[in-house]
Amino acid sequence: MIFNKSESMTSPVSLQAYNTFHIDASAGRLEMIVETSRLKDIIAGGQPFHIIGGGSNILLTDDIPGLVLVNRLRGYEMVDKTPDHITVRVASGERWHDFVLWSLSMGYGGLENLSLIPGTVGAAPIQNIGAYGVEVKDIIVAVHALDMETGEEVTLRAEECRFGYRDSIFKREAKGQYFIIAVDFRLTLRNHRIVDDYWAIKEWLAAHHISAPDIRDISKAVIQIRSSKLPDPEVLGNAGSFFKNVEVDKEKMKALGLRFPEIKAFEMPNGNFKIPTGWLIDQCGWKGRRIGEAGCHKDQALVLVNHGKASGREILRLAKAIQADVEERFGLMIEPEVNIWP
Ligand SMILES: Cc1cc2nc3c(=O)[nH]c(=O)nc-3n(C[C@H](O)[C@H](O)[C@H](O)COP(=O)(O)OP(=O)(O)OC[C@H]3O[C@@H](n4cnc5c(N)ncnc54)[C@H](O)[C@@H]3O)c2cc1C
């Protein structure tokens, strides 16, 4: 579908092409946002709306009767440069992976471990996207947004965003308060910090006889590992990891270890333990199973998939059945990472 500047479609519009689960829910009205001035007009008009970037972290469980805005704000701007760093302001509607590729082509470091994550730049701070030992909070300097009540432009410094594991102020206190219009990232110009401690990256580097990887090698490794492990949403609808990993304190971990000696867990810098939810789901026998058109991926238990014509409610039903089984067996409540709409 090709849209021209500020083009909008009126009722009802299928959202199937705008969410990576490919759920065929509809919107009352859909508008592509290519200019912040138009966004300000919409906010001033007082009509409520939903925001979609790449639609790779939402599950549509019903039609959206009102307005849906699809973010297509574009542009890059350099805002600061020192001998070691560059700060770049990127419009929120830019595709995340395009930004990663652009930064690599310029020789800028910091984004390589986050290669091939779907979605837009503006959604990255919302759940503090992370992969292969790096979280986007490590490179964000500030987030620029429009306040959805007043239409005023605000800037939140990284410290004000309260970033946590797949979490930020935008999922909590400020949920629904801002339309993120741009993000400032501080990237390295030299002395890049190479993060290669994930076993899959180590294995890839060893297989390619690379002992001193640069940022491009890391990106290449991540792209190849991700492509071989994760289902392509264009082929099999999904939103990546459906659930977050579980964090427990030392005491709880000890108790779980006594009951389930084979349990997998990783100690975190704060002394807590992270338990891979994929492993918990797999232990409950869900990997590869399906309920109708909704399924748990055959290789990645954390990824729920649309085998064809699943509705959002079918996927949600499957997610709830998995949650209930994990809770019954391990006494752990697993939390969705995906935003469930409406
Ligand atoms: C195959 C696959 C692999 C993935 N791998 C990873 C991974 O490794 N790590 C990871 O962290 N995530 C991963 N994800 C999840 C997803 O890619 C990220 O969460 C991404 O940042 C979502 O971007 P989006 O533009 O698609 O957001 P959407 O799905 O469009 O939106 C997500 C939420 O953010 C809100 N939102 C979007 N844009 C704005 C804005 N400009 N202002 C205010 N609110 C906004 C929406 O309203 C919605 O609530 C994966 C997803 C898929 C499909």
Give a topology summary.
Blueprint lengths: L7 E7 L11 E8 L2 H10 L3 E4 L5 E3 L3 E8 L4 E6 L3 E7 L4 H10 L24 E2 L2 E2 L4 E8 L5 E5 L20 E11 L10 H9 L7 H15 L7 E5 L4 E3 L1 H10 L6 E2 L5 E3 L1 H7 L6 E2 L2 E3 L6 E4 L5 H19 L8 E3 L1
Parallel strand pairs: 2-5, 3-5, 4-20
Antiparallel strand pairs: 1-2, 6-7, 7-12, 8-9, 10-11, 10-12, 13-19, 14-16, 15-16, 17-18, 18-19
Helix pairs in contact: 3-4
Flavin-adenine dinucleotide (FAD) binds next to strand 3, strand 8, strand 12 and strand 13.
Molecular structure report:
- With 342 residues, the protein is an alpha+beta fold.
- The protein folds into 3 domains: 8-71, Uridine Diphospho-n-acetylenolpyruvylglucosamine Reductase, domain 2, CATH 3.30.43; 76-188, Uridine Diphospho-n-acetylenolpyruvylglucosamine Reductase, domain 3 (2-Layer Sandwich), CATH 3.30.465; 237-341, Alpha-Beta Complex (Uridine Diphospho-n-acetylenolpyruvylglucosamine Reductase, domain 1).
- Helices cover 23% and strands 28% of the residues.
- It has 7 helices and 20 strands.
- The chain has helices at 36-45, 96-105, 199-207, 215-229, 250-259, 277-283, 312-330; strands spanning 8-14, 26-33, 49-52, 58-60, 64-71, 76-81, 85-91, 130-131, 134-135, 140-147, 153-157, 178-188, 237-241, 246-248, 266-267, 273-275, 290-291, 294-296, 303-306, 339-341.
- It has a 5-stranded antiparallel sheet, with no helix packed on it. It has a 4-stranded mixed sheet with strand order 1-2-5-3. A 4-stranded antiparallel sheet has the order 13-19-18-17, with helices on one face.
- The longest helix is centred in the C-terminal third of the chain and has 19 residues, at 312-330.
- The protein starts with 7 loop residues before the first strand and ends with a strand.
- The model has no long low-confidence stretch (mean pLDDT 95).
- The protein binds flavin-adenine dinucleotide.
- The site of flavin-adenine dinucleotide (FAD) has 33 residues, from strand 3, strand 8, strand 12 and strand 13.
